[in-house]
Amino acid sequence: MKDYEIYSTMKVPKNSNIIIRLDGRKFHSLSKALSLEKPYDEKFYKIISNVCLDIFNQFAPKFIYTFSDEISILLDEIPFSGRVEKINSVFASLASSSFTYYLLNEYSNEFDLDKLSDNERNIVFPISFDSRIIPIDAHHISSYFKWRQDECWRNCINGYGIWALKKEYDSEEANERIKGLKSNEIHDLLFERGINLNDVETWKKRGIGVYKRSWEIEGFNPKKQVKTVSTRSEVYVDYELDIFNQEFFEELE
Ligand SMILES: Nc1nc2c(ncn2[C@@H]2O[C@H](COP(=O)(O)OP(=O)(O)OP(=O)(O)O)[C@@H](O)[C@H]2O)c(=O)[nH]1
Ligand SMILES: [Mg+2]
Fold this sequence. Notes:
Alpha-Beta Plaits, 2 domains, six-stranded antiparallel sheet, binds magnesium ion
């Protein structure tokens, strides 16, 4: 019967870096059921950041990047002997259970989960994510993340634009109007309504990164009477990312 498991031998290319991209399933409906704040809900982003930290702690990837309901994970050491089915299923289920855990245990009061109707509850629980694997050579890593970061920025402009228009028009008309506008026109529209995207928090415009950073600490050994230098490191959640460039990825530990 083992012969029927025809995908089980499918593996990612040897010696390749991979990026795993997870995306929340039906998060548009989830955001409605939970009445997430628009265009950005800080509680939601705290949950997603915690999910990224759980992934980081279990798999020690090189870098994780998140915005909206998607998470990209850069791995230079490939788990599960590179088995595609195993990697996709484990990462998707880890994100799903982690998200559900934080939503139920840490943030249940903030989202008033007790007040959900049965219908809303069925939409929200259980949470699921999909997963895909992107094998990538070292030269294209920064282009990949720049691509996602550009999407994050587009999302930000559109998110604020539609949020502003929905204050003046019904949903259908607001959606219709935003479709016909270029980025700079949405900028102007927002500016006329007192919103300057330059002043919006960096994480909304450029996303959130999770990675390891280390620094040196100078001390003194009194027995030997010499100065000492030791290295400390921590997993860092970066809400102030720069626009991605090649150097950023070369410097990752
Ligand atoms: N209100 C609000 N909604 C958010 C926020 N972050 C993400 N979302 C929602 O998450 C959705 C993510 O987009 P998609 O992945 O395309 O939508 P989806 O419903 O998850 O669709 P599938 O991934 O195909 O299942 C957005 O459309 C928003 O509705 C937030 O901070 N506030
Ligand atoms: Mg989604």
